[in-house]
Design goal:
heterodimer; A: mainly alpha; MetI-like fold; 15 helices; about 80% helix; B: alpha+beta; D-Maltodextrin-Binding Protein, domain 2; Dipeptide-binding Protein, domain 1; Dipeptide-binding Protein, domain 3; 3 domains; eleven-stranded mixed beta sheet; four-stranded antiparallel beta sheet; 17 helices; 19 strands
């Protein structure tokens, strides 16, 4: 188990390193931030631009800039935003919890809905409940999430005035973004749970459990669910990683003060330090979740630990 | 006193008390929430070039001069001024008894500190310095008078002192707290002072009761940064935001807002003008007749009426009616497709010739406008294709490098409302926005007006520059777009500012 973990950990470090290198390099191909900053200032001479670049530390060769970034990374000093000079760590410190909390809320909604529905569908395979769940989840799957978001805002914020249309401001503000993203994940997850459950329900130990006279709920939620947990945990884990990256659109529609909004603004402003930090952190989260999934595997299924 | 009388007395007392409470709350009461599309990141005047910095900071800082929504220049922190030595020295008398939010006194030293800082090391790192390049140094005469010594006279300087980099900052505060602290904790002499600032989320201001112009009517002024237009409008409709400022509300959303009984659209003429400029260096657009043909060929009034819902005015040169240098007698070329075809024929342009129009991809309204332009050009026999670019790429890499198609989008709107701020940058040889042309005669005209402080004479030259560019058809002037505000019905006394520099001290809310 230890060796397995060390191996996976080293792989993780390597992936993050490559990502930071590629990101730092690629972002510098997108154009000159000094030009951006001087945009509103009528006449700008090459001297003015050189001065602004020097102020931003962009006159250094790429490798030195990259080394600075890496060094800063280990001391949790990500430098300052090109736009206004706010420390990047302060921006990330505010945005990261916002994104992670939203992602958890989304996963919560999705899992809490999809597991009971998926099991119900599997148990009543072919009957009307199964069909209904399948149709509803198909409809959920075909919604574009930004459209759904706008419809929810129209109904709950503008017409009924129950929920705030944007921003992160208490429990109520989580409902619409979490539901919008959650419903789309749920659509896929219900089908996944149903398939995994169907397979498990046909195995002999379920027959034994039922023969023992265990209640149907114990059979389903204790015996069956645990045995089909492996594919589900993998999938939910990967989904969580994908969610962190894919949350940008929803963050923008709901003006959520998270990493997605931060990255979106940084791209527009060619704000290298902010973008570098956000992408590095997102990749760390995604890679980290994958690592966690691997570890949880080991806990659920002892066979993997020894492999 | 019988029962009835007692009752009446009690009621009167109650009414009086209520009345008292009402007057108490009429003074400095109520919170106004504003949706602004962008966080400038720093509130330091020398760091910014963003209009949305000014829509907040106009409430925090004062300049020596002030220019409000009616575009008239009036005294600010300076009570009077006098131009000396042929306009190369300006003497300012300063307002006495003014305090910064931190209690620091405003005086001649604060003025000197502000401009030493702007023209010195701190200013060099930012984009504002070049706007004030005419200032050589500031000399303190006594505690309440200063002399501005100029390298050369700058006819627009007094206006520039009313905004952006020229906002007066507190010397002791900045020296003690440091530059970084000042970025996030601005202190000025304006009618509102900082309460709290959360980067990327919002900034909250509260009334500064000791403002020299009197305490503001509102007690709190909150700004929320919301970049997505539909989100900002949803916040307005749900009553959580009272004011949405430009440039947020797209033309297409105006009908939605107008249908809502609780909110209104308020517009005013703005400095923002739109044109399709020509590649005058190469290809068929190097020929003046072809350029004129394209202008004749596009029905600009129809575009304004249909696509822009009437929220724009036609222009004859690259400036709106607010611009100093605007000539009301100048008329745009009329829509005349036959004349256009005839000119193209004279120039030997074959029907079906391909041309390219470069536009900013994220500007939904202008995308529609340029599609209409392309169809009009199709009618006169030019096969136009649109090429959308990411805005920053277009502004920084395509236009200055002279890599555009035959036509390219340019929007412009200087807050100084002076045609010099447009014409010099668009047409003078070697300027960033003039990648194709070098015209000695035009250069001379542009340079000559900069040395003149006589307003009438200068206006005449600026008007002749406008006429010159129209004669040469250097661009297809399209329209002057209004500044569009979305305002809740609970807001009173709101005057829309053409340049988004909103001072909200007279506004009240229900």
């Amino acid at each position: 188990m230890a060796r397995f973990l060390i191996n996976r950990f080293l792989q993780t470090i390597f992936v993050i390193f490559v990502v930071t290198l590629v990101v730092s390099f690629a972002i510098r191909l997108t154009g000159d931030p000094a030009l951006m900053l001087a945009q509103g200032a009528g006449s700008v001479s090459e001297d003015d631009l050189a001065r602004i670049r020097e102020g931003l530390g962009l006159n250094q060769p790429f490798l030195i800039q990259y080394a600075d970034f890496l060094r800063g990374f280990f001391t949790l000093d990500f430098g300052r935003s090109f736009l206004g000079g706010t420390p990047v760590s302060q921006l990330i410190g505010a945005a990261l919890p916002a994104t992670v909390m939203l992602a958890f809320a989304v996963m919560f909604v999705s899992i809490a809905v999809s597991i009971p529905l998926g099991i119900k569908a599997a148990v009543s395979r072919g009957k009307w409940a199964d069909q209904a769940i399948r149709i509803v989840s198909l409809i959920g799957l075909s919604f574009p999430n930004f459209w759904l978001a706008i419809m929810l805002v129209l109904l709950f914020s503008i017409t009924l005035q129950w929920l705030p249309p944007s921003g992160m401001d208490g429990f109520a503000s989580f409902l619409m973004p979490a539901f919008t993203m959650g419903i789309i994940l749920t659509a896929t997850n219900v089908r996944l749970v149903r398939t995994a459950m169907l397979e498990t329900l046909q195995s002999q130990y379920i027959m034994v459990a039922r023969a023992k006279g265990l209640s149907e709920n114990v059979v389903l939620y204790k015996h069956a669910l645990r045995n089909c947990a492996i594919p589900l945990v993998t999938y939910f884990g990967l989904q969580f990683g994908g969610l962190l990256g894919g949350i940008v659109v929803i963050e923008r529609v709901f003006n959520w003060p998270g990493l997605g909004t931060l990255a979106f603004d940084a791209v527009g402003a060619r704000d290298y330090p902010v973008l570098q930090a956000v992408i590095t952190i997102l990749s760390m989260l995604i890679v980290g979740v994958n690592l966690l999934v691997d570890i949880v595997y080991g806990l659920i299924d002892p066979r993997i630990r020894t492999e | 006193m019988n029962k009835k009388q007692r009752m009446r007395a009690a009621l009167t007392a109650l009414a009086l008390a209520g009345g008292l409470m009402a007057t108490a709350s009429a003074q400095a009461a109520g919170t106004l929430t504003v949706a602004s599309p962008q966080d400038p990141g720093s509130w330091d005047p020398v760091d910014t070039f963003l209009v949305n910095w000014a829509s907040v900071a106009t409430n925090i800082y004062d300049g020596l001069t002030y220019r409000g929504p009616n575009t008239e220049l009036v005294p600010g922190l300076a009570t009077s001024w006098e131009e000396l030595d042929n306009g190369t020295r300006i003497r300012f008398k300063l307002r006495e008894g003014v305090q910064f939010h931190n209690g620091e006194p405003f005086n001649a030293d604060a003025v000197k500190f502000t401009f030493d800082r702007l023209m010195g090391e701190e200013g060099k790192k930012g984009p504002q310095r070049s706007n004030y390049a005419a200032i050589d140094h500031v000399e303190v005469i006594d505690n309440y008078s200063v002399d501005f010594h100029l390298k050369a006279s700058d006819p627009v300087l007094l206006i520039k002192l009313a905004g952006y980099g020229a906002m007066i900052v507190p010397p002791t505060y900045i020296t003690e707290k440091g530059e970084d602290y000042f970025n996030a904790h601005p202190v000025g002499t304006g009618p509102f002072k900082l309460a709290s600032y959360e980067p990327k989320i919002g900034i909250k201001l509260e009334a500064f009761a000791d403002h020299w112009g009197g305490a503001p009517q509102l007690s709190n002024l909150n700004y929320r940064f919301i970049s997505e237009p539909s989100t900002a409008v949803a916040e307005l409709q749900s009553g959580r935001v009272d004011l949405v400022i430009p440039p947020t509300i797209p033309i297409g959303m105006i009908p939605t807002i107008e249908q809502d009984p609780n909110i209104d659209i308020v517009t005013t003429a703005s400095p923002t003008v739109y044109a399709l400029r020509f590649n005058t260096g190469n290809g068929i657009t190097a020929d003046e007749r072809v350029r004129k043909a394209m202008i004749y060929g596009v029905d600009r009034q129809a575009i304004i009426d249909s696509i822009l819902g009437g929220q724009a005015a036609p222009i004859a040169s690259f400036q709106g009616e607010l611009s100093f240098g605007h000539d009301p007698k100048m008329q745009p070329l009329p829509y005349d497709p036959n004349k256009a075809k005839q000119l193209l024929k004279e120039a030997g342009v074959a029907p079906g010739t391909k041309i390219q129009i470069d536009i900013r991809g994220n500007d939904a309204t202008f995308n529609e406008v340029s599609q209409a332009v392309a169809s009009y050009l199709q009618i006169i026999g030019l096969n136009a294709t649109l090429k959308p670019y990411e805005t920053n790429v277009m502004l920084n890499d395509i236009i200055p490098a002279g890599k555009t198609g035959e036509l390219f989008q340019q929007n412009w709107g200087g807050w100084t409302l002076d045609y010099d701020n447009t014409a010099y940058f668009m047409y003078h040889t070697g300027e960033k926005w003039n990648p194709y042309d070098s015209d000695a005669e035009l250069d001379l005209l542009l340079e000559s007006q900069r040395a003149i402080t006589d307003r009438a004479k200068r206006e005449e030259i600026l008007q002749s520059i406008a006429q010159y560019t129209a004669n040469q058809a250097l661009e297809m002037p399209l329209y002057n777009l209004n500044a569009i505000y979305g305002v809740s019905n609970r807001v009173h006394n709101f005057t829309p500012a053409p340049d988004s520099r909103l001072r909200l001290s007279d506004v009240t809310v229900d």
